[in-house]
Amino acid sequence: MQSKAETIGGLPVRAPRLTGFDWRGYIVYLFFTAVLLFFAVTIGDKGFLTVPNLFNIARNTAMIAVIAVAMTFVISAGELDLSVGSTAALSALVAALVIQAGFGMVAGVTAALGAGLLVGLVNGLFVTGLAIPSFLVTLGMMQFVRGLDMRLTYTNPVPVADNTFNGIFGKGYLFGIPSLLVWSVAAVALGHVVLRYTPFGRQVLATGGNRVAAAYSGIRVNRTKLYCFLLSGAAAALAGLLFTGMMSTARYNYGTGIELAAIAAVILGGTSLFGGRGTIIGTFVGALLIGTINNGLIIMGLDVSEQNMVAGAIIILAVAFGKKPAR
Amino acid sequence: MQSKAETIGGLPVRAPRLTGFDWRGYIVYLFFTAVLLFFAVTIGDKGFLTVPNLFNIARNTAMIAVIAVAMTFVISAGELDLSVGSTAALSALVAALVIQAGFGMVAGVTAALGAGLLVGLVNGLFVTGLAIPSFLVTLGMMQFVRGLDMRLTYTNPVPVADNTFNGIFGKGYLFGIPSLLVWSVAAVALGHVVLRYTPFGRQVLATGGNRVAAAYSGIRVNRTKLYCFLLSGAAAALAGLLFTGMMSTARYNYGTGIELAAIAAVILGGTSLFGGRGTIIGTFVGALLIGTINNGLIIMGLDVSEQNMVAGAIIILAVAFGKKPAR
Amino acid sequence: MTNLLELRDIEKSFATIPVLRRASFELRSGEVHALMGGNGAGKSTLMKILTGVYTKDGGSLVFDGREVELSGPRDAERLGIAMIFQEFSLIPTLTVAQNIFLHHEPRAGGFLNDAEAERRAAGILSDLGEDIDPRALVETLSVGACQMVEIAKALSKNARVLIMDEPTSSLSEAEARTLFSLVRKLKSEGISIVYISHRMAEIFEICDRITVMRDGHDALTRSTGEVTMQQLIEAMLGEGVEASMQYQARPISATAATVLEVENLTLEEKVVDASFTIRAGEIVGLAGLTASGRTEIAEAIFGLRRIRSGEVRVDGKPVRGTDQAIAAGVALVPENRRTQGLVLEHSMHDNMVLPNLARFTRGLFVRDGAGRRAANDAIARLKIRTDGPDKVVGLLSGGNQQKIVLAKWLERRPRLLILDEPTIGVDIGAKSDLVEIIREIAEAGTAVLVISSEFEELLAMSDRVLVLHDGRLIKELEREEIATEEVLHHAIQG
Amino acid sequence: QDGSNIGDVDHPLWYQPPSAETLELAKIDDLSDTVVSGGPRGEEGVLASTLNITEEQAQKIRDGKFTAAISMGWLGDDWATQQLIGLNETFEKLGIEVVAETNANWDDAKQLADLDAIAVLKPDLVVSIPLNTQTTASAFQSLAEAGSEIVFIDQAADGMDAPGDYAGVVSSDNLALGMYLADLLAERNGGTGEVGAMYFANDFYVTNLRYIGFVARLMAKYPDMKLIAAAGHDDPNKGQQVAQAMIARYPAMQGLYASWSIPAMGAVAAAQSYGRTPQDLPIVNENFDQIVAADMANDGFIAGISSQRPYDQGVAEATIGALALIGEDVPDYVVVPPLKVSRDNLPASYETIYRLPLPEQMAANLGQ
Ligand SMILES: Nc1ncnc2c1ncn2[C@@H]1O[C@H](COP(=O)(O)OP(=O)(O)OP(=O)(O)O)[C@@H](O)[C@H]1O
Ligand SMILES: Nc1ncnc2c1ncn2[C@@H]1O[C@H](COP(=O)(O)OP(=O)(O)OP(=O)(O)O)[C@@H](O)[C@H]1O
Ligand SMILES: O[C@@H]1[C@H](O)[C@H](O)CO[C@@H]1O
Ligand SMILES: [Mg+2]
Ligand SMILES: [Mg+2]
């Protein structure tokens, strides 16, 4: 009779016990495993289980994963960032334009990161300096930057001919591993260590958990939030580079809708939407779960309407069986 | 020296004093007025100030407004509903199919409301019964229902030939007022009274303000939340009927993205994203602000990229000057 | 006299951990019955079962001679049971009046009648001697005012049984006095009251009977006249334990460095022209009525409030803003443990590490092991009742949460320690331990500023007492001048 | 001819003025035997009507037990639906199994992921409309390398050549489509007056051509018809909003090209709200679907439709794909000419496009 959730008038008031095996906390892993197994059995012979296909899943998940890692920080700190998609496109265009202009890859990447950091900085300053809700700031920013993206090249795509760039950020391999997978695993590993084992990570969680108490404990909560937005801007920039490398082209419409997918990955992974609790590994598995479902359902031959229905149902079920939040 | 927000380490810890005129709380009204004035001066002679154009703004805002009214309840209760857009499309299709099949308008409208309420019920039961975050439940539901919408008519549009229906829900007028405006004003008036002056409204605010304390006070917080989701489903259904009436057609992709627009209207209006505080009138003005900006910028002759940039900037500014939330 | 209600052999576990073990409790009509016990003994839990907030695992509840089952707060309300919760049940985003009448609002034709609610709320509050605007949002109120609203809310229900869970913990002397006369008045109207408190004096003053709980079981029930303080302490804490709150004179070297200098401090709110100093090793008490500005002074020193004029110096260096204050070694134990003191959903060791991140970091990484060890030390030293350092602190009893707030800051070994109402809700055993610990800290060279509304505690610790009245420092009492609580009492009235 | 009737409207961000060749072709009154748009690489268009599969070839295809996958860029209009019907019917007839059908919903990154998943199934044939010719190129290239035959709808991916990398492209004649739109407006207003154009703002090859075709025809053939307003939408559902603003600002506008059917119907709603009549504000568009057909039958604002033949396109795509699978030579650029639809030829056009008689309600409204 382990982990019976305690309730107050029907409300769960406590997380399940920390003793014993708390399988609900690991639901995203279980679900991911179950989905993988299901596809392996049903469509394993249709190519699902091949290494290239599994790499495909990882590759297609890379941008969501990178953005979701930073989003885990933002959400853990009690905020949201909806501007990541259009920021990714902005960085993609900036990088491509700089490279096209002949300044080389390093300049392109630097400029792209600069663009992402700038958006993050503005988001962060508005949210912390003026204390306005990040949902709205970043919603406005999402729209503003998308307009900028369109304007920048009059919606024309910008091809990138630099094969080193395209290799590193998109099509290449490192020791036989697709570079997109390398990037996302690197982002996940770094994010995990920072959130879990460094003072900054602690400050993020405390800020999201109780801003006032964190401030009384001497944490600079505004600075902490600002850093989270910078991180998110940088991650969006990296995602933009990955989009560009993968497609050898930058386009103004990259990343449309990626914010919701990333947030879904974060929350599926077990991070609380209300801040104070976050897990990067969970986020990654959440992103992989989404990617695997999308891939597997196509291979199963479901049409688009069925794909939507099944993917939607799986998200609901995954959380339904998942850990009940303490709040 | 009125309304100085109290701060701790730069954090607002309490709302401004209640004494003095707190203009920041009314920012959305000021902003709306300012935007109207600006357009009146710059493009008043270009057709902006004509009655049909102003009616058009109201008409275009109707669906967002109706959904945003219910969303104000959902957000005030501390939840979110992302499934409203695809639910609107579902209800639109259901109504059109029932009418097309010859069962008449009343049956069509009833069936549409039934569909909306059903989605709301499922959302509500998952969120309250299983205590899972509404963001994810309704995100999954949004996708599931969109798949269903596609399936229902294999993405084919369903025309509605019933002119009474099209008049009541779309193109008609009541005493010279476009029926879409009548519907949205009715929704706003009802929502305002219910949220502000009835026990249910109070329970919603209490639930969102502090769920545990509300439960201690004997409020059935789960039931309250469930009702909010039902309301949201019903409002989505109404919006679907309005879409259908306006276009004399139902389509599977109605309402795409309307959830974000509605949430933006709610928060612009001054409702706290963290629950416990809500204002329906503010929501309506927030929706009108969005609608006016969209209309005015097109009349000004801005292209899509510029429209995006300006609209995004206005949202950011409106909140930047707006009331600082206590949390 | 007949029993109005009886709780018989109540059992309750959270997850698998038993909290109540065959706990019994009887309440007669028209009596004031004290419920005492150490932190985590199960008092609040037992009373929450009586109000339907929790459901019991076993045992029975007899009300008015009939056995009843409560399936929620509404059932209890129907029986006429109301409770003043220790962890307030207020909605921060609603007004005072809306909170007081939450879920039993006055109506007019089906609609809410806020004007009537405000009128009635004003009436109840003025009976309580409080000057709180019924239209103010609760989130703008001080802890003391919230406590009053919580009390008013319970009173508004015209209950037959009123449970008060540490109602005076955030109140001043004067407010507590008003509350006591109210309790007597209610009693004379035949209302039965369960009174939970850690303050011995008030228990002996207003209660007819006392039940002591220990480890989830009722250990003793007696009439107030038939029991001594020492007997109560032993019932609560065990044989031979002494909980003494006596001042012990400590020689403070005349050459000790001056740590804190506050010079002509005037703030945006309340505080006007305050000047004082504290030397290393000295414990200075800050006394005053509610809203006299004590918290403001504390927060200003810690850099949380804007200074209009004047200066705060630590070790001779001017200090402004939290960053500088923390760098200078100032620590503030804030007055509200839930909103300011703890991240409730985090574990104890995470909370412990928070203000001490630098100390618990080696290289780039936080040393969780060390944090856990520190937490375990604190659990032992402050006798914190918990399953362990990993338990989410929001699930602990109020007093235990307060001990963690203290532990968190003591761990810091600050140069200047400011304690704002440090023992709210802490049981007598722990309180005397705390006094001991604070003395040790002072002896090690820390300057200490203590704000407390509890005279006993203030007197037990302070080497000197500053008296604040309406934002101004009106007196400075040397130790010799304050022999009794009366002296302090008079000084505070201004 | 000098283009003065195009005035100084704000053209789309991607706008390129019509080429001299296009302007020349735009002068030809009857375009039904002319292929106006060649392929983007200068391919010569071959009319779809010339394609044919012999019974012998059909048997060979059936024996091959081939599989096919379809990667669409969007769904939800009759164009997509009829394409799919044409494709699926033809595949079924030829015993080709459709193993996957995807919808990228206008997002080329999603299309890339879709193509990746399709690649896993190793279909013998892939039919797809690349949302962007550059960004999706790598995926199509690797499909080709893995041995799939590819038929493109509308445009081929960059860096690929027929017949080595793909079988062919099937498209509507998009410049001609745009030109017909100008013709249809002129039929209503006698080739004079002020008109507006509402375009799809995003850079999308085929829709860009239509706008350019429309402009070219005005320049070449209707010097008295003046383009006074142009505005874009980036989402078909926003058509109504954009049209409203255009009508508010240019009340003199006497005709409107409204791109697809969804924005066109939005424009109809907008025109109604301004109390305009079908006579003083005719609206033309480029999707022949049930909604605009019904409005036209009802004597509504929709004055003309420059229709593609999506079903025929689907059939043509399946046909060249199937032929390529058995090693036959197929043309690299197949063109399906548009169909000019107005009230007069509505029933016949409906039968041509939908292979069904005009629905009763519409016929009744037409007064037939
Ligand atoms: N919801 C809960 N989940 C888990 N444990 C709980 C919960 N509520 C209370 N407990 C535990 O039950 C024990 C008794 O708590 P309770 O609040 O009844 O103590 P108390 O006697 O009121 O103490 P205090 O004097 O500190 O208020 C504590 O150890 C506490 O940690
Ligand atoms: N009317 C009010 N509006 C806003 N904040 C208030 C109000 N009254 C008190 N506060 C705040 O509540 C906190 C408690 O301060 P208070 O003035 O009560 O000081 P105190 O002397 O420490 O008294 P207490 O014994 O209540 O702690 C302070 O942060 C103060 O700013
Ligand atoms: O024309 C079709 C569709 O109908 C849509 O108009 C986009 O371009 C395609 O080629
Ligand atoms: Mg307690
Ligand atoms: Mg205080």
Automatic annotation (TrEMBL), chains A, B:
Topology relative to the membrane: Multi-pass membrane protein
Pfam family, one: BPD_transp_2
Keywords from the named record: Cell membrane, Membrane, Transmembrane, Transmembrane helix
InterPro entries xrefs: ABC_transp_permease
Cellular location(s): Cell membrane
Transmembrane intervals: 26-45, 57-77, 89-113, 125-145, 173-195, 226-246, 252-274, 281-302
Protein name per Swiss-Prot or TrEMBL: Ribose transport system permease protein
Organism in which the protein naturally occurs: Limimaricola variabilis
UniProtKB/TrEMBL annotation, chain C:
Keyword Nucleotide-binding recorded: yes
Pfam families referenced in this protein's UniProt entry, alphabetically: ABC_tran (PF00005)
Keywords for this protein: ATP-binding, Nucleotide-binding, Repeat, Sugar transport, Transport
All residue ranges annotated as the ABC transporter domain in the record: 5-240, 254-491
InterPro entries: AAA+_ATPase, ABC_carbohydrate_import_ATPase, ABC_transporter-like_ATP-bd, ABC_transporter-like_CS, P-loop_NTPase
A Gene Ontology molecular function term of the record: ATP binding
Protein name: Ribose transport system ATP-binding protein
Organism this protein belongs to: Limimaricola variabilis
The organism's taxonomic lineage, starting at the top: Bacteria, Pseudomonadati, Pseudomonadota, Alphaproteobacteria, Rhodobacterales
